[in-house]
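Thread: quick sanity check before group meeting

JM: Hey all, I'm pulling together slides for Thursday and realized we never actually wrote out the predicted structure for the chain we discussed last week. Dropping the sequence here so it's in one place. If anyone has concerns about the input, flag it before I start.
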Amino acid sequence: MGKALITGNHAAGYALSVCGEANRSARGCVAGAYPITPQTEIVEYLRGFNFSRGRVVPVESEHSAMAVCIGAALNGARAFTASSANGLAYMVENIFAAGYYRLPIVLIAVNRTLGPPWNIWVDQGDSLMFRDAAWIQFYTESHQDLVDTVLLAFRVAEDPRILLPVCVALDGFVVSHTLMGVELPEQAQVDRFLPPCHVPHRLRVDHPATVGGLTWPKETAHHRRQIQSAMERVPEVLEEALDEFEKVFGRRPDGALRVEHAEDAEQMLVACNTMARTARRLVESRQSEGEKLGLIKLKMFRPFPRRQLREAVGKAKRLGVLDRNHSAGSGGVFWGEVAATFQGRSDLVVQNYIVGLGGGDVTPEVLGMIADDLQTRMTAGEPIWQEVGV
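JM (edit): ok, ran it. Output follows.
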Protein backbone atom coordinates (compact mmCIF):
# COMPACT_ATOMS: atom_id res chain seq x y z
CA MET A 1 0.00 0.00 0.00
CA GLY A 2 3.00 2.29 0.46
CA LYS A 3 3.26 5.35 2.67
CA ALA A 4 0.17 7.16 3.91
CA LEU A 5 -0.49 10.16 6.14
CA ILE A 6 -2.96 8.78 8.69
CA THR A 7 -3.99 8.97 12.34
CA GLY A 8 -2.87 6.44 14.92
CA ASN A 9 -6.39 5.04 15.15
CA HIS A 10 -6.49 4.59 11.37
CA ALA A 11 -3.11 2.85 11.54
CA ALA A 12 -4.33 0.52 14.29
CA GLY A 13 -7.55 -0.29 12.44
CA TYR A 14 -5.68 -1.00 9.22
CA ALA A 15 -3.14 -3.26 10.94
CA LEU A 16 -5.84 -5.28 12.72
CA SER A 17 -7.82 -5.60 9.50
CA VAL A 18 -5.03 -6.92 7.30
CA CYS A 19 -3.97 -9.33 10.04
CA GLY A 20 -7.53 -10.62 10.29
CA GLU A 21 -7.82 -10.91 6.50
CA ALA A 22 -4.58 -12.91 6.42
CA ASN A 23 -6.43 -15.74 8.18
CA ARG A 24 -9.08 -16.09 5.46
CA SER A 25 -7.75 -19.47 4.32
CA ALA A 26 -8.07 -20.84 7.87
CA ARG A 27 -10.93 -20.11 10.28
CA GLY A 28 -11.26 -16.42 9.52
CA CYS A 29 -11.35 -13.57 12.02
CA VAL A 30 -13.72 -12.00 14.54
CA ALA A 31 -13.63 -8.64 16.33
CA GLY A 32 -15.73 -7.53 19.28
CA ALA A 33 -16.65 -3.87 18.78
CA TYR A 34 -17.74 -1.29 21.33
CA PRO A 35 -16.96 2.46 21.20
CA ILE A 36 -15.16 4.60 23.76
CA THR A 37 -13.14 7.81 23.39
CA PRO A 38 -10.36 7.94 22.19
CA GLN A 39 -10.54 4.44 20.69
CA THR A 40 -13.83 4.55 18.73
CA GLU A 41 -12.33 5.17 15.29
CA ILE A 42 -10.51 1.82 15.46
CA VAL A 43 -13.69 -0.25 15.66
CA GLU A 44 -15.32 2.06 13.11
CA TYR A 45 -12.50 1.21 10.71
CA LEU A 46 -12.97 -2.52 11.38
CA ARG A 47 -16.71 -2.24 10.65
CA GLY A 48 -15.93 -0.73 7.27
CA PHE A 49 -13.37 -3.31 6.20
CA ASN A 50 -14.53 -5.91 3.66
CA PHE A 51 -13.31 -9.15 5.24
CA SER A 52 -13.33 -12.22 2.98
CA ARG A 53 -14.00 -14.45 5.95
CA GLY A 54 -14.55 -12.40 9.05
CA ARG A 55 -17.09 -10.66 11.20
CA VAL A 56 -17.11 -7.56 13.37
CA VAL A 57 -19.67 -8.02 16.14
CA PRO A 58 -21.18 -4.86 17.70
CA VAL A 59 -22.04 -5.54 21.33
CA GLU A 60 -23.59 -3.74 24.30
CA SER A 61 -20.45 -3.39 26.43
CA GLU A 62 -16.68 -3.82 26.60
CA HIS A 63 -17.16 -6.93 28.76
CA SER A 64 -19.06 -8.48 25.86
CA ALA A 65 -16.49 -7.30 23.32
CA MET A 66 -13.85 -9.44 25.00
CA ALA A 67 -16.38 -12.26 25.46
CA VAL A 68 -16.91 -12.28 21.68
CA CYS A 69 -13.13 -12.56 21.21
CA ILE A 70 -12.95 -15.43 23.70
CA GLY A 71 -15.71 -17.33 21.93
CA ALA A 72 -14.14 -16.73 18.53
CA ALA A 73 -10.65 -17.76 19.63
CA LEU A 74 -12.03 -20.90 21.29
CA ASN A 75 -13.39 -21.77 17.85
CA GLY A 76 -10.02 -21.17 16.19
CA ALA A 77 -10.58 -17.73 14.66
CA ARG A 78 -8.08 -14.88 14.77
CA ALA A 79 -9.64 -12.55 17.35
CA PHE A 80 -9.06 -8.91 18.28
CA THR A 81 -10.64 -5.80 19.78
CA ALA A 82 -9.81 -2.33 21.13
CA SER A 83 -10.75 -0.23 24.14
CA SER A 84 -9.66 2.49 26.58
CA ALA A 85 -9.83 3.55 30.23
CA ASN A 86 -13.02 2.52 32.02
CA GLY A 87 -13.90 0.34 29.05
CA LEU A 88 -10.81 -1.73 29.84
CA ALA A 89 -11.84 -1.73 33.50
CA TYR A 90 -15.24 -3.15 32.55
CA MET A 91 -13.46 -5.75 30.42
CA VAL A 92 -11.04 -6.93 33.13
CA GLU A 93 -12.88 -10.10 34.19
CA ASN A 94 -12.74 -11.40 30.63
CA ILE A 95 -9.21 -10.09 30.13
CA PHE A 96 -8.09 -12.42 32.91
CA ALA A 97 -10.19 -15.25 31.46
CA ALA A 98 -8.64 -14.85 28.00
CA GLY A 99 -5.15 -15.16 29.46
CA TYR A 100 -5.96 -18.17 31.59
CA TYR A 101 -7.64 -19.84 28.59
CA ARG A 102 -4.33 -19.35 26.68
CA LEU A 103 -6.07 -17.62 23.77
CA PRO A 104 -3.96 -15.59 21.26
CA ILE A 105 -6.24 -12.52 21.22
CA VAL A 106 -4.81 -9.09 20.36
CA LEU A 107 -6.16 -6.03 22.18
CA ILE A 108 -5.38 -2.42 21.25
CA ALA A 109 -5.37 -0.25 24.37
CA VAL A 110 -5.57 3.46 23.58
CA ASN A 111 -4.27 4.72 26.91
CA ARG A 112 -6.60 7.17 28.66
CA THR A 113 -6.95 8.29 32.28
CA LEU A 114 -9.24 6.19 34.44
CA GLY A 115 -12.09 8.10 36.07
CA PRO A 116 -13.67 9.51 38.11
CA PRO A 117 -12.96 12.42 37.95
CA TRP A 118 -13.43 12.08 34.20
CA ASN A 119 -10.50 12.81 31.95
CA ILE A 120 -10.14 11.72 28.32
CA TRP A 121 -6.38 12.33 27.98
CA VAL A 122 -3.46 9.93 28.12
CA ASP A 123 -2.42 8.01 31.23
CA GLN A 124 -1.15 4.43 31.31
CA GLY A 125 -3.08 3.37 34.40
CA ASP A 126 -5.78 1.67 32.33
CA SER A 127 -3.67 -1.01 30.62
CA LEU A 128 -1.30 -1.36 33.57
CA MET A 129 -4.17 -2.27 35.90
CA PHE A 130 -4.11 -5.78 34.40
CA ARG A 131 -0.33 -6.15 34.66
CA ASP A 132 -0.86 -9.34 36.70
CA ALA A 133 -3.06 -10.93 34.03
CA ALA A 134 -1.55 -13.55 31.72
CA TRP A 135 -1.07 -11.04 28.90
CA ILE A 136 1.98 -9.90 26.99
CA GLN A 137 2.14 -6.09 26.91
CA PHE A 138 3.82 -3.77 24.40
CA TYR A 139 3.94 0.05 24.56
CA THR A 140 4.45 1.89 21.26
CA GLU A 141 5.99 5.29 20.58
CA SER A 142 4.74 6.19 17.10
CA HIS A 143 2.26 5.34 14.36
CA GLN A 144 4.84 3.18 12.57
CA ASP A 145 5.83 1.44 15.77
CA LEU A 146 2.13 0.75 16.38
CA VAL A 147 1.50 -0.87 12.97
CA ASP A 148 4.64 -2.99 13.18
CA THR A 149 3.91 -4.09 16.74
CA VAL A 150 0.36 -5.19 15.91
CA LEU A 151 1.77 -7.55 13.27
CA LEU A 152 4.38 -8.83 15.70
CA ALA A 153 1.70 -9.26 18.38
CA PHE A 154 -0.26 -11.79 16.29
CA ARG A 155 2.91 -13.63 15.30
CA VAL A 156 4.07 -13.99 18.92
CA ALA A 157 0.64 -14.66 20.44
CA GLU A 158 -0.17 -17.48 18.00
CA ASP A 159 3.22 -19.17 18.24
CA PRO A 160 2.60 -22.68 19.69
CA ARG A 161 5.32 -22.05 22.28
CA ILE A 162 3.42 -19.02 23.60
CA LEU A 163 -0.38 -19.06 23.05
CA LEU A 164 -1.03 -15.99 25.18
CA PRO A 165 -3.00 -12.81 24.41
CA VAL A 166 -1.21 -9.54 23.66
CA CYS A 167 -2.03 -5.93 24.55
CA VAL A 168 -0.59 -3.24 22.26
CA ALA A 169 -0.82 0.20 23.89
CA LEU A 170 -0.61 3.69 22.39
CA ASP A 171 -1.02 7.19 23.81
CA GLY A 172 -4.54 8.53 23.53
CA PHE A 173 -4.82 11.64 21.31
CA VAL A 174 -1.02 12.10 21.21
CA VAL A 175 -0.91 9.16 18.77
CA SER A 176 -4.53 8.10 18.26
CA HIS A 177 -5.70 11.40 16.75
CA THR A 178 -2.54 12.90 15.27
CA LEU A 179 -1.33 12.41 11.69
CA MET A 180 1.98 10.82 10.75
CA GLY A 181 3.45 9.21 7.65
CA VAL A 182 3.30 5.43 7.95
CA GLU A 183 4.55 2.58 5.75
CA LEU A 184 1.46 0.40 5.51
CA PRO A 185 2.10 -3.25 4.67
CA GLU A 186 0.52 -4.82 1.60
CA GLN A 187 -1.93 -7.64 2.22
CA ALA A 188 0.36 -10.05 0.36
CA GLN A 189 3.22 -9.18 2.72
CA VAL A 190 1.06 -9.75 5.79
CA ASP A 191 -0.06 -13.08 4.32
CA ARG A 192 3.60 -14.08 4.08
CA PHE A 193 4.41 -12.91 7.58
CA LEU A 194 1.47 -14.44 9.48
CA PRO A 195 0.92 -18.21 9.27
CA PRO A 196 -2.70 -19.39 9.57
CA CYS A 197 -3.93 -19.13 13.14
CA HIS A 198 -4.02 -22.50 14.86
CA VAL A 199 -5.46 -22.78 18.37
CA PRO A 200 -4.66 -26.38 19.36
CA HIS A 201 -7.22 -26.49 22.18
CA ARG A 202 -10.09 -25.02 20.16
CA LEU A 203 -13.53 -26.53 20.64
CA ARG A 204 -14.27 -29.43 18.29
CA VAL A 205 -17.43 -31.45 17.75
CA ASP A 206 -15.35 -34.59 17.20
CA HIS A 207 -13.44 -34.12 20.45
CA PRO A 208 -15.73 -32.72 23.19
CA ALA A 209 -13.99 -30.95 26.06
CA THR A 210 -14.76 -28.75 29.05
CA VAL A 211 -13.35 -25.23 29.12
CA GLY A 212 -12.93 -23.41 32.42
CA GLY A 213 -14.02 -26.21 34.70
CA LEU A 214 -13.24 -26.61 38.40
CA THR A 215 -9.67 -27.54 39.36
CA TRP A 216 -7.88 -28.32 42.62
CA PRO A 217 -4.93 -26.35 44.05
CA LYS A 218 -2.28 -28.60 42.50
CA GLU A 219 -3.74 -28.25 39.01
CA THR A 220 -4.09 -24.46 39.39
CA ALA A 221 -0.46 -24.10 40.46
CA HIS A 222 0.64 -26.25 37.51
CA HIS A 223 -1.47 -24.10 35.16
CA ARG A 224 0.12 -20.88 36.40
CA ARG A 225 3.60 -22.39 36.09
CA GLN A 226 2.87 -23.27 32.46
CA ILE A 227 1.90 -19.64 31.84
CA GLN A 228 5.14 -18.47 33.49
CA SER A 229 7.14 -20.82 31.25
CA ALA A 230 5.39 -19.43 28.17
CA MET A 231 6.19 -15.88 29.29
CA GLU A 232 9.84 -16.83 29.72
CA ARG A 233 9.91 -17.98 26.08
CA VAL A 234 8.53 -14.68 24.74
CA PRO A 235 11.90 -12.87 24.27
CA GLU A 236 13.26 -15.68 22.09
CA VAL A 237 10.05 -15.94 20.05
CA LEU A 238 9.93 -12.16 19.64
CA GLU A 239 13.49 -12.11 18.25
CA GLU A 240 12.56 -14.81 15.76
CA ALA A 241 9.49 -12.79 14.76
CA LEU A 242 11.67 -9.70 14.28
CA ASP A 243 14.02 -11.70 12.03
CA GLU A 244 11.09 -12.80 9.87
CA PHE A 245 9.64 -9.29 9.86
CA GLU A 246 12.92 -7.94 8.51
CA LYS A 247 12.94 -10.56 5.73
CA VAL A 248 9.39 -9.74 4.65
CA PHE A 249 9.25 -5.97 5.12
CA GLY A 250 12.90 -4.95 4.77
CA ARG A 251 13.20 -3.16 8.13
CA ARG A 252 13.48 -4.18 11.76
CA PRO A 253 11.23 -2.71 14.48
CA ASP A 254 12.41 -2.28 18.05
CA GLY A 255 12.32 -5.36 20.22
CA ALA A 256 11.79 -5.57 23.97
CA LEU A 257 13.77 -2.38 24.50
CA ARG A 258 15.98 0.08 22.66
CA VAL A 259 19.21 1.53 24.05
CA GLU A 260 20.66 4.85 22.88
CA HIS A 261 23.89 6.66 23.80
CA ALA A 262 24.72 4.09 26.46
CA GLU A 263 28.43 3.60 25.70
CA ASP A 264 29.73 6.22 28.13
CA ALA A 265 26.49 7.19 29.89
CA GLU A 266 26.74 8.02 33.58
CA GLN A 267 23.00 8.56 33.91
CA MET A 268 20.14 7.23 31.81
CA LEU A 269 16.46 7.97 31.39
CA VAL A 270 14.05 5.02 31.19
CA ALA A 271 10.88 5.82 29.25
CA CYS A 272 8.19 4.30 27.05
CA ASN A 273 5.57 5.38 24.51
CA THR A 274 5.73 8.96 23.21
CA MET A 275 7.71 10.06 26.27
CA ALA A 276 10.61 8.10 24.79
CA ARG A 277 10.46 10.25 21.64
CA THR A 278 10.66 13.43 23.70
CA ALA A 279 13.42 11.98 25.88
CA ARG A 280 15.38 11.10 22.72
CA ARG A 281 15.40 14.77 21.67
CA LEU A 282 16.69 15.80 25.09
CA VAL A 283 19.37 13.09 25.18
CA GLU A 284 20.65 13.99 21.71
CA SER A 285 20.81 17.66 22.70
CA ARG A 286 22.63 16.97 25.96
CA GLN A 287 25.02 14.56 24.24
CA SER A 288 25.98 17.28 21.76
CA GLU A 289 26.91 19.43 24.75
CA GLY A 290 29.14 16.69 26.21
CA GLU A 291 26.76 15.43 28.88
CA LYS A 292 26.92 11.67 29.44
CA LEU A 293 23.18 11.02 29.31
CA GLY A 294 21.64 7.92 27.72
CA LEU A 295 18.18 6.54 27.03
CA ILE A 296 16.46 3.18 27.44
CA LYS A 297 13.11 2.87 25.70
CA LEU A 298 11.11 0.09 27.31
CA LYS A 299 8.70 -1.34 24.75
CA MET A 300 7.84 -4.68 26.34
CA PHE A 301 6.38 -4.50 29.83
CA ARG A 302 5.18 -8.10 30.14
CA PRO A 303 7.16 -10.21 30.36
CA PHE A 304 9.41 -7.60 31.94
CA PRO A 305 12.80 -7.70 30.15
CA ARG A 306 15.02 -7.89 33.24
CA ARG A 307 18.04 -9.52 31.59
CA GLN A 308 18.04 -7.10 28.66
CA LEU A 309 17.64 -4.14 31.02
CA ARG A 310 20.58 -5.20 33.17
CA GLU A 311 22.74 -5.46 30.05
CA ALA A 312 21.50 -2.11 28.73
CA VAL A 313 22.45 -0.13 31.83
CA GLY A 314 26.13 -0.92 31.48
CA LYS A 315 28.31 1.37 33.60
CA ALA A 316 25.66 4.00 34.30
CA LYS A 317 25.32 5.02 37.94
CA ARG A 318 21.90 6.69 37.87
CA LEU A 319 18.58 5.73 36.30
CA GLY A 320 15.65 8.13 36.08
CA VAL A 321 12.46 6.14 35.47
CA LEU A 322 9.63 8.14 33.87
CA ASP A 323 6.12 6.95 34.75
CA ARG A 324 2.91 8.25 33.17
CA ASN A 325 0.97 6.23 35.72
CA HIS A 326 0.58 5.93 39.47
CA SER A 327 0.14 2.93 41.76
CA ALA A 328 -1.49 4.38 44.88
CA GLY A 329 0.68 3.91 47.95
CA SER A 330 3.70 2.85 45.90
CA GLY A 331 4.73 5.07 43.00
CA GLY A 332 5.23 4.52 39.30
CA VAL A 333 4.57 1.04 37.96
CA PHE A 334 7.56 0.90 35.62
CA TRP A 335 9.80 2.18 38.41
CA GLY A 336 8.69 -0.65 40.68
CA GLU A 337 9.75 -3.18 38.04
CA VAL A 338 13.05 -1.45 37.31
CA ALA A 339 13.90 -1.13 41.01
CA ALA A 340 13.20 -4.83 41.54
CA THR A 341 15.44 -5.66 38.57
CA PHE A 342 18.39 -3.94 40.23
CA GLN A 343 17.87 -5.02 43.83
CA GLY A 344 21.25 -5.53 45.46
CA ARG A 345 22.97 -2.94 43.25
CA SER A 346 24.06 -0.47 45.93
CA ASP A 347 26.12 1.42 43.34
CA LEU A 348 23.09 2.29 41.21
CA VAL A 349 20.59 5.08 41.98
CA VAL A 350 17.10 4.28 40.61
CA GLN A 351 14.91 7.39 40.98
CA ASN A 352 11.23 7.56 40.04
CA TYR A 353 9.66 10.59 38.32
CA ILE A 354 5.87 10.63 37.91
CA VAL A 355 5.09 12.85 34.97
CA GLY A 356 2.30 13.59 32.50
CA LEU A 357 -0.56 12.14 34.55
CA GLY A 358 -3.98 12.86 33.09
CA GLY A 359 -2.46 14.02 29.81
CA GLY A 360 -0.10 16.63 31.21
CA ASP A 361 2.49 17.85 28.72
CA VAL A 362 5.81 16.01 28.82
CA THR A 363 8.05 18.54 27.06
CA PRO A 364 11.83 18.62 26.60
CA GLU A 365 11.89 21.36 29.25
CA VAL A 366 10.12 19.11 31.78
CA LEU A 367 12.48 16.23 31.05
CA GLY A 368 15.40 18.65 31.24
CA MET A 369 14.49 19.44 34.84
CA ILE A 370 14.34 15.73 35.56
CA ALA A 371 17.75 15.13 33.97
CA ASP A 372 19.23 18.00 36.03
CA ASP A 373 17.83 16.53 39.25
CA LEU A 374 19.04 13.04 38.37
CA GLN A 375 22.57 14.26 37.69
CA THR A 376 22.99 15.59 41.25
CA ARG A 377 21.58 12.53 43.06
CA MET A 378 23.77 10.39 45.28
CA THR A 379 20.85 8.32 46.62
CA ALA A 380 17.30 7.56 45.50
CA GLY A 381 14.41 9.20 47.27
CA GLU A 382 10.64 8.90 47.22
CA PRO A 383 8.95 9.20 43.81
CA ILE A 384 9.11 12.78 42.56
CA TRP A 385 5.90 14.25 41.16
CA GLN A 386 6.76 16.45 38.20
CA GLU A 387 3.54 18.46 38.21
CA VAL A 388 3.12 21.06 35.49
CA GLY A 389 0.90 24.09 35.92
CA VAL A 390 -0.31 23.10 39.40
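AS: nice. The mean pLDDT is 97. The two ends are 46 Å apart (CA to CA).
JM: adding both to the slides.
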